Amino acid sequence: MTTRMAHTRRGFLAAALAAGAAPATSHGQTARRKPNVVVILADDSGWGDYSVHGNHNLHTPRIDSLAREGALFERFYVCPVCAPTRAEFLTGRYHPRTGVRGVSTGQERLNLDETTIAQTFRAAGYATGAFGKWHNGSQAPYHPNSRGFDEYYGFTSGHWASYFGTQMDHNGTLTRGQGYITDDLTNHALAFIGQNRARPFFCYLPYNTPHSPMQVPDEYYNRFAGKDVAQRATNAAQEDMLMTRAALAMVENIDWNVGRVLDKLKELRLEKDTIVLYFSDNGPNSWRWNGGMKGRKGSTDEGGVRSPLFVRFPGRIRPGARIAQIAGAIDLLPTLSDLCGVKLPADKPLDGRSLRPLLENPKAPWRDRMIFSTWNKRVSVRTQRYRLDAEGALYDMEADPGQTTGIALREPAVAARLGKAVAEWSAKVLPKEPDGRPFSAGYAPVTYLPARDGVAHGGIQRSNSAPNASYFTHWTSAGGSITWDIEPGHDGGYDITIHYTCAAPDVNCVIEASFDGSRTARAITEAFDPPLRGAEVDRVHRGVESYDKDWKALSLGALRLTRRRGLLTLRALSIPGRQAIDLRYVILTRKS
């Protein structure tokens, strides 16, 4: 990671840094620098998962402090699922415009002609770092290091199989994390903040909890194990108490880590110079207390898309401010750019607007607006007062926040106006063609092609129904194959390495890789058959996530790739045992 320090400030600044602090003005703010930004994003944590919103089942004092010392948005909206919200935060645009259509198999990739918030801030001289779940593309040039982040540590997929000693991506190279994943991500973010305290920095900390699998250290889970949870889901019969207890424990761990970030800023005397923003990516991932709202993750109803948003900026945002006007993830890029005096990207129109006037004065004049939510071709729209749901039912959200009684017959003009708006928005924004993009390869020295992005043929199966974090197994027939639709960025030779497991009775199977007439093959002569892991630390039996295991790397030899779209194919030329291999990754390393 590079550090660019202005040559003209070396004297006094160097002395101040030697004392562990940046120079300060009489008001406690550092001189001659733009504000720092720390954005913290929770994963699958609903609006109701915080004590500041009235949930007494848990305690979130450090997250709550952001609302006490800054602004709390009462009606803030994100998307029903993970990748779309991230895309809207990164671009200030509705996610269907950006190419993000799903959460896996390439549909989560952010179009390359989109300008991200990281590129925007880096162009203004900021150090940029992201630490956590990216979920907007894995291979360069979709990788976070290609989208404006100088430093990246985390994972690029949608969900991960293990939260202890997790396999991580550090600037494009796989590595092994240390300890519990949320603590590990925070450790790297804190290091980044410390390393860049002498210049403005943009730190994006997208946690992946409380997304399943439900794993959390004992010190947090033991607070809830067997606890009588008083506040329940609206329909208590739908609630899985094991899931609720685990989710609340995971949120309390997030709270502890948010406190570590806040303490670091205070220690470095940066808290008055730093905007800290906290939100979540969708509604809760289970039925639990959520303020009586209808819907949860995956729903375009209020409970599926309403998120916390807390923004602290000492000296600029009045402590305890409450902002009633509706806002959304699309507003965060223009808001942060406005607060920091950073020039907005001019290549594409933004859907969001700057919330700075409201942050500085919650009673500032503000015109009503519409915020659209979509998932799986379902579209809902929210105004300050009304929500028109995906079935065309109209609700007065001020009088009926739980969406219990439709009023379309009573307010036909409102229903017609919002229905027309949904139709017009859908025609302009929703994609009309299927996503036919190939996967990129060779744009970085090393390209990882996970099982998630491959297609199995001839009886080969995924380890679980959800592609993210899955591997291929049940490779029992020589007629089976696995293909990746790729478009290499560079002509030349590539070493092709696989990450495999193979039981001792199945060794000596021969695996061939091919692309556009170039072929290489190698026999699997070494058994490697580690046990699955994860179940022993799961708090709830997992659903769609695969279990984790260790993998062995083996080079199959060299392939020549040409800059033309084609299928990278793995075949088993012989299977002398019960099956061939289980496969997690194909890795392409440029040789020339």
* Percentage beta strand: 15-25%
| Residues in helix, % | 10-25%
The CATH topology of the largest domain comes to Alkaline Phosphatase, subunit A
Q: So, the CATH homologous superfamily of the largest domain?
A: Alkaline Phosphatase, subunit A
CATH class (first level) name of the largest domain? Alpha Beta
Average residue-wise pLDDT: 94
Q: Count every beta strand, where a strand is a DSSP E run of 2 or more residues.
A: 29
Gross morphology:
globular
Strand order of the largest sheet: 7-6-5-4-8-1-9-11-2-12
Q: How many alpha or pi helices? A: 11
For the sheet with most strands, the description reads: 10 strands, mixed
How many independent structural domains? 3
Q: Please identify, by name, the CATH architecture of the largest domain.
A: 3-Layer(aba) Sandwich
What structural class results from the helix and strand content? alpha+beta
Distance between the termini: 25 Å
